[in-house]
């Protein structure tokens, strides 16, 4: 009798006992002699057995029928687990004068289908039976892992004798391995002991589609719930927590997941995909650096691989990107990019293959996209106003040397522009320098404070503009910002969007323009971080709305350019109210998400770039104060849009995110009372639903 036949006989016997157990459970008053006889019969496998010793002994000890059958089921499972465990071995087989190392199980992959089906049937019967609470624990802790280990260790080869392994050439029955019956019995919470493989990982190995489905389910929920905080969800939600830990314990599965998400991003260009992938990478790095914070025991923490196992490609590049944000490190990054690009173009003869390698999941570009803080840091350097001596970054980050040496500032601006141009278009090598020059020029026009003057050719208008500049001091007028955004968008159409059409491989990245447009708009956030003290409230709203939606808020002041400041502000308020009334749900949703994104970004940058906690909190508080009005406008519009598909769930996420946002930096800031009132209003709506 073969091993698989013996195991299936055990499963059949277990199923028979489960059926008898159910019958006895329905009628507890049945004769104990009947139950003992059935038990004796199942052990002897002989209907004509005359051995009655066991019947008599159990009767004298007054065992009840449920107890007997619970014991039968328990020890049947232990027997099956023991047989399954013994089928996996590692030994040396002597073939004449040769030695062959045999690793794996004695059950072939063809027989695993039958084994998994039998196990699924037993799990269903045990679940339907109920009864003792210990049985489900035995099931999860022993039977299911044992079956999965045998399935993972199964081989396509079989040896008929101990000597001379041969290929099992029997034709298959055409049945595929179906794990759907076993999936519901995987515990949501993962408890990993030393030397054991998580159940979820074994499922992923046996069927990669399960990994794809697990990732897709999380991604779909995140896409439907834009205000969901992934850090909190991955830490608190049991099933998501188990998924992220399973990826940590298997660098290979993490690489596959990252490749899958990257390919999806190239196909769709969706911002949610990019943000989700970036968050996944940051969480993996956080777990391997602080495993005990995530519930991984000390002995298991020591077994975790180093970072190069998760990033086998461009690991030295990853080490720089995962390090602190400094100007010197950015110069190293740009140098490595130039060196790698030159080496690839020189060594490759296939131009199409070279283009694809620039954007695939193994590329430096794909790696850099997973560390978005460097792109944001470059945007800050691009728009850093060196004449603003009271800026947090000028005193705490760059030091006095930068404000004294213009050449050094220009060099950093050029480096930042080159990095941004490469992120926007990693394939169009010949166009990157042109894009970098245009970015540096646009940033220089803005920070020089001569942009508004340079746009006017009429001497009378020039005079009025100078008067306006004297009135407002350092602040940029919203009209100047609107003109700059128009020119900035024109630069995208002329020098960036056109180059993507001619250089990006349509097969590898058909929707690259979507993601590229998103990144391009986020460049303007560098103004709000690097020049935040010079942009007034109207300018903040203009830039936030453009970065979020790509649209420029309309101006009601189209004829008169020399109006007094009070009249201009009144007209801006009228235009702002009109925008809120005419905007749809998607626009204000993107606007609110962008403010949360900007605050998280400033918090991340300030930890690395600012030298004191007090200055960090002050800087975050400053950003919150200037963006709070725009955020609350978006939130109030969402509260009135009660036609949302999951309105209650959206409000719950929004309240949680708004509460977290209000406590970033300092809880008390200009406009904090309005935020607290809004949170209270959301709570009242939730309580009434």
Give a description of the structure.
- With 689 residues, this protein is mainly α.
- The chain folds into four domains: 3-162 and 175-185, no CATH class; 199-312, no CATH class; 354-571, no CATH class; 583-689.
- It is built from 34 helices and four strands.
- The strands form two sheets. A two-stranded antiparallel sheet has the order 1-2. It has a two-stranded antiparallel ribbon with strand order 3-4.
- The two termini are 64 Å apart.
- Mean pLDDT is 77; it is low at 28-33, 47-51, 159-172, 400-404, 453-473, 500-504 and 558-575.
Quaternary organisation of the protein chains: single chain
Broad structural category: mainly alpha
Summed up, the domain count is: 4
Count of helical stretches: 34
Cα-atom Rg, whole angstroms? Answer: 33 Å
* N-C termini distance: 64 Å
Share in helix? 55-70%
**What is the percentage of strand-forming residues?**
under 5%
Characterize the largest beta sheet: strand count, sense, and whether it forms a barrel: 2 strands, antiparallel
| Shape type | globular
């Amino acid at each position: 009798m073969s091993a698989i036949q013996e195991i299936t006989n055990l499963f059949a016997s277990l199923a028979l006992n489960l059926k008898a157990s159910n019958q006895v459970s329905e009628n507890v008053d049945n004769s104990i002699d009947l139950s003992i006889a059935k038990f004796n019969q199942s052990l002897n496998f002989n209907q004509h057995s005359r051995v009655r010793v066991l019947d008599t002994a159990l009767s004298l000890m007054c065992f009840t029928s449920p107890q007997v059958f619970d014991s039968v089921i328990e020890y049947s499972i232990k027997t099956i687990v023991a047989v399954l465990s013994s089928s996996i071995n590692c030994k040396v087989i002597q073939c004449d004068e040769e030695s062959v190392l045999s690793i794996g199980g004695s059950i072939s992959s063809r027989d695993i289908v039958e084994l998994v089906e039998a196990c699924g049937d037993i799990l269903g019967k045990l679940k339907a039976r109920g009864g003792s609470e210990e049985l489900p624990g035995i099931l999860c802790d022993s039977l299911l892992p044992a079956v999965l280990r045998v399935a993972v260790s199964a081989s396509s080869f079989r040896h008929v004798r101990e000597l001379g392994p041969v290929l099992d050439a029997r034709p298959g029955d055409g049945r595929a391995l179906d794990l759907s019956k076993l999936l519901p019995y995987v515990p949501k919470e993962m408890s990993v002991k030393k030397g054991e493989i998580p159940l979820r990982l074994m499922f992923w190995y046996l069927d990669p589609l399960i990994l794809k489905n697990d990732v897709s389910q999380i991604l779909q929920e995140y896409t439907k719930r834009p205000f969901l905080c992934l850090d909190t969800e991955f830490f608190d939600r049991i099933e998501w927590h188990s998924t992220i830990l399973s990826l940590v314990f298997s660098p290979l599965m993490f690489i596959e997941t990252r490749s899958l998400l990257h390919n999806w991003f190239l196909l769709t260009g969706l911002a949610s995909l990019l943000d989700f992938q970036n968050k996944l990478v940051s969480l993996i790095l956080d777990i391997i650096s602080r495993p005990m914070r995530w519930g991984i025991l000390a002995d298991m923490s020591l077994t975790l691989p180093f970072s190069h196992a998760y990033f086998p490609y461009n690991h030295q590049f990853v080490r720089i990107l995962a390090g602190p944000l400094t100007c010197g490190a950015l110069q190293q990054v740009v140098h490595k990019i130039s060196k790698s690009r030159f080496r690839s173009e020189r060594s490759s003869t296939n131009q199409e293959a070279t283009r694809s390698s620039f954007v695939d999941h193994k590329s430096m570009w794909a790696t850099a996209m997973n560390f978005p803080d460097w792109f944001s840091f470059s945007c800050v350097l691009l728009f850093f106003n060196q004449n603003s001596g009271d800026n947090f970054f000028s005193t705490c980050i760059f030091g006095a040397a930068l404000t004294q040496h213009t050449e050094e500032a220009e060099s950093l601006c050029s480096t930042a522009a080159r990095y941004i141009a490469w992120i926007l278009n990693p394939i169009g090598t010949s166009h990157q320098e042109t894009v970098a020059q245009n970015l540096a020029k646009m940033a220089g026009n803005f920070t020089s404070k001569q942009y508004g003057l340079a746009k006017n050719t009429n001497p009378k208008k020039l005079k009025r503009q100078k008067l306006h500049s004297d009135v407002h001091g350092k602040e940029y007028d919203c009209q100047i910002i609107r003109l700059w955004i128009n020119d900035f968008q024109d630069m995208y159409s002329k020098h960036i969007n056109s180059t993507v059409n001619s250089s990006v491989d349509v097969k590898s990245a058909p929707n690259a323009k979507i993601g590229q447009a998103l990144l391009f708009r986020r460049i303007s956030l560098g103004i709000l971080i690097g020049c935040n003290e010079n942009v007034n409230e109207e300018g903040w709203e203009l830039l936030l709305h453009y970065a979020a939606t790509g649209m420029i808020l309309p101006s009601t002041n189209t004829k008169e350019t020399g109006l007094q400041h009070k009249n201009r502000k009144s007209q801006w308020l009228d235009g702002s109210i009109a925008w809120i009334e005419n905007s749809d749900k998607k626009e204000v949703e993107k606007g609110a998400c962008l403010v949360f994104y900007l605050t998280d970004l400033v918090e991340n940058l300030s930890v690395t770039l600012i030298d004191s906690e007090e200055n960090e909190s002050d800087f975050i508080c400053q950003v919150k104060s200037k963006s709070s009005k725009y955020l609350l406008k978006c939130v109030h519009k969402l509260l009135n849009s009660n036609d949302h598909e999951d309105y209650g769930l959206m409000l719950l996420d929004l309240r949680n995110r708004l509460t977290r946002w209000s406590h970033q930096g300092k809880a008390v800031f200009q406009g904090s009372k309005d935020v607290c009132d809004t949170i209270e209003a959301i709570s009242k709506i939730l309580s009434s639903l």
